[in-house]
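Below sits the subject:

***
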Amino acid sequence: MAQIYKGFLEADKVPGDIQTISQPIWSEDMNPWTSSYSAGIGWFTSSAQLSQSGDYYMNIYHRDPQSAPNAAIQLAIAYGNKQGSGSVGDANTIGNNANDTPSRAIYSQYRNQLLPPADGIFTFGTADSNEIIVINIARARFRQKVDPGNWELRLGSGSGVNMTGSSNKYSTFIDASGAGETPAINEGGRVFGIYSGSGGVTQSNTQYGLFYPDQGVFVFHAGLLRANLGHPYNSSSAVQARNHVTMSLALSGSNYFAARSEERVNSTHYFVRVQNLEFNFSNNPTFVTGSNGTFLHASMLRNPSVYITTIGMYDNINRLVAVAKLSKPLLKSFNREALIKVKLDY
């Protein structure tokens, strides 16, 4: 029977470095994310998603999900209102409460996710807000966290909020980490203020939003965007305003969102020592023939030769947890030994 397993000694395991890796968030290494419709890249939505859950939020893809097999969700946009305004509730809701609306559900969701238990309202600087616009980066895009100070977002403003008119104005937003702001820390992790500015330099003290890098979430004060940028968010009661669509127009119209992820990668080096008497046989059924296990090739008698191509790494109960592939097969026999270093990143 061929040898299958061999345990590691403590000396065979060497902890490596912890590296912080920053890379573009968006698919296909776009940074910034801008449209190039001739190349099929831009800001796309899914009609199927909008028809099913479009009253709550909308997903934004970097390619057309109707035709591009590699279309991937980059972010989601939602509008939340503490009072339930700006959307219409389901007529079949228990109790038929007019305030049980998508916008109220969205506000409650992000309040529970991002605010301390005793805090029932989002506060921007010193101003509370009952209505918010949320940009939620897809987890697959930012992995561990969005890199503070390494993102810049443009939003259409004024009458050119969708950038189709003649004004074509936009406002640029960043977090204040570059200005030395110390983040607050709560249930949502670190929290930075969002201000108008670019290149790491803020241009005013008006706090337009809250940035949660560990959650990949940007929460904007919808009232300030309406008052200062002219975004036509409708906060009337019993109105299906679909304000998240307005934000999507401001995003796609300005056509610029630069962002990078930040990820800590731990490394451990494993030294796989294959001595001359070990792993010289194979469990591959083509290695032998007949019921008595005779070598298929007589020349291998007393001098079998095999090739190492793959190393499987198992936990203490023999579950396969990692696989290492050699760049080319490695000859192994009774006359040859091998030392293979495997680097495991996690």
Observations:
- The mean pLDDT is 87.
- Helices lie at 47-53, 102-114, 139-142, 222-229, 243-254.
- The first strand starts at residue 13 and ends at 24.
